[in-house]
Amino acid sequence: MTTTRFVALDALRGLILALMILVNTPGSWSAVYSPLLHADWHGFTFADLVFPGFLFVVGAAMFFALKTQAWSAASVKKVLRRTLLMFVLGLGLNFLWTPDLSQMRLMGVLQRIALCYGLAALLVLALKPWFTGAKQQYLMPLFGALLLAFYWLLLQLGGPAPYSLEGNIVGVIDRALLGEHRLYQGFGMPFDPEGLLSTLGAVVNVLLGYWVAGELSQRQPKAGMLWLLAVGALMLLLSQLLAPIWPVNKALWTGSYVLQSTGLLLGLLALMVWLVDIRNFAFIAEPLRVYGSNPLFIYILSWCWTVLLSKVLVWQVAGVGSTGGTENTMSAYQWLYQLLQSGLADKPASLLFALLHVGLFWFISYVLYRRQIFIKI
User: Could you give the number of structural domains in the chain?
Assistant: First the structure.
């Protein structure tokens, strides 16, 4: 049977990258529209779709990268080398933000991508004899369900409040192994939303991306779109049935969160299949394909750019500081946002600031794409 490569998968990768930059680069975190903020704990917002979307497209790309590979010393070495490279680069980004090694956070977005990629790729290579042909349609989601069930059982070890901020075992393990001072501090107590144990849930997003890419490769566009809609609807139904006993929670990366985020992604992907693979709207597909041509490099570059604007390009300004002296500082990040504020209200200015960055990094992606520069990470 002829393998079909859906343009929508490449376009989705670019769209997810654009949304990641949009969510991560507001003019001010105190002036953000609520859909672009993550849920405080339980719950789901538009922003909560972005990271699982990135993991999903990592899995989709993995299908084509590993399609002709089998378990061998060379393939395992290649996976481990790439995993280590991404993890070290993630540590480097954390160091740029917090140069004090004694306080630097150890986990993060790129570190989670690295661990999820590595675990998922090794699982695919090891289990490939069972995940090929017609068997893949049933065994891959079944394996993902078993992995989520195992994660659920581990969470129950946390005690009577396994899904609370204070009582979950994810935080207990991270605080014990990594140290409180090396965890994310934004929840009011040390807790890392990219923690070690919760990586188990996130790995399933990668495996589902691999599975969906494999299933689409055996279908024509219209049949693929209908399949996506049916499977996405089923996942959304399952997430709602599961939510009362396993709340939707990005920070813990719960099974209901995996199902809800993937169900929505499949609906979005079905729409994109209709637009770019069935209707052939190139004006939608091409800009997104360009954006997704160097995804990890552009993500890293956007982080370094933010550090440059907010940490490096800083100067003293006249004004009374908190101690009564002229101690105020201004960063280039703040200055650019305030420039937009001069003509707009706070939230529109903050959104426009983020959209301008989306455009900036699309332009950089376009220059690299035109020169056929593809930076493999």
Answer: 1
